[in-house]
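haha ok so turns out i had the wrong file open the whole time. this is the CORRECT one, sorry everyone. sequence first:
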Amino acid sequence: MNSFSSIASFIEIETQTDLEISGITDDSRSVQDGFLFVARPGVNCHGLTFIDDAIKNGATCVLSDLPSPPSIDIPYMHTEHLESMLIELLFKFYNLDKNNFLFYGVTGTNGKTSTAFIAHQVICKLGKPSCYIGTLGAFVDMKFLPTKGNSTPGIFELFKFLADHPFDEKAHIFLELSSHALAQNRLSSLRFTQTILLNIYSDHLDYHLTEKEYLKAKLSIMEVPAKHPPIIHSDSLIIESSLEVIQKKYKVNVLSSKDLSASYFFRKAFNHPELSSVSFEFPHFRMKINVSLFPQFNLDNFACAIGLLSNTCSESELEALDFTDIELPSGRSEHLICKQGHVFIDYAHDPAAMRNILSALAVSYSELILIFGCGGERDRSKRPQMMSVAEEFSHEIIFTSDNNRGEAFEKIASDAVGDKQIKNLSIVKSRSDAIQQGLMALHKKNILVILGKGHERTMEENGKSFPFNDREYILGNIST
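then structure:
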């Protein structure tokens, strides 16, 4: 379906106009020659605000929920029901069969990437077509493909990606759902097979402004269309305290390692450095799975991944798999064992994620050397909280740059430290210098922990981006 007349017919509009449409988008910046520009409500304004830009970039026709402005002289379609028919329109435009896709949505303050990527690997192990799209970019089966960079793509970007990478049979599509995407209804009325809420901690207040609005955004996953009721991992404090209210309002399934009455119950046995195990007592199966994931909180991510698949995969399918080679995504809990000692790299960039990691590592190591920073032009309230967590668990703290963007590093450091006198704290603006200092303090009995950037391959400062990756820098400056 790629002509003006076919789209007009789909939305029940009569037209004598016919022209070929080469693409479809609601972003005027993405318009190319021959595109249909969809002018719909946005976060701050309506798409019609950018219609002149869209036409200048090559749009040859427009579809909108608002009547045509008098100045428009290209074919224009108007329907008040645009949002309700948008998903069906995209399936038809790209000639995709909606029955050939199973969509899974994962949200939570922490663990989205790991959980979605683990679930993606399980489907790959079963020999079924699978695609992960999220913070890392995209993986079709285990082949990496770059995306525009948002954790959650827009609905037009998603459908273009699916059309460009066709599957021979029914495909499982795993999507990270960020709080921004949920608040913006970025995926419109896309219907999921299963959604899951992992946890909620305070985050992204630079965008949501209040914890109440952030909580509202995360809980909106309860209202996302899905075949099965959403699953809630209830083991985080905010969810645990809100669970009774949530259950009165929504039909949900609870996943927990604490509540024996939970419909999705699991037990963890952590035996680092040997294999750990997770025992599942789920509605559709009871089984024990051995995995090699470290630290312990990754067993929760694994359990959530199995929960996400619990209505799709059978017990016999899962029992036939070897899970001991399941890997975490790049930059997530990467444990490098070098001649000088152990190095641990993770993407953690909020107080709760830092606490999860540092408390787990403190069980196995007597001394933690911590390198971390706080993002510029982002939630300032997190900065002193992150430093407090660092103080609690670290023998030595090196505070450094972590995407300062347009904000002065000195101001970021001042916010993090405040009026405290912190023992064993170094403030080193250069991230490479900070890592060098950490490596010099490394020996066989401690561990160097580098948090904040994980998989990221660039640093942002003063409006510019330059190459830098923690793992690559470590491997280039240490003996393995």
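The first strand starts at residue 23 and ends at 25.
again sry for the mixup
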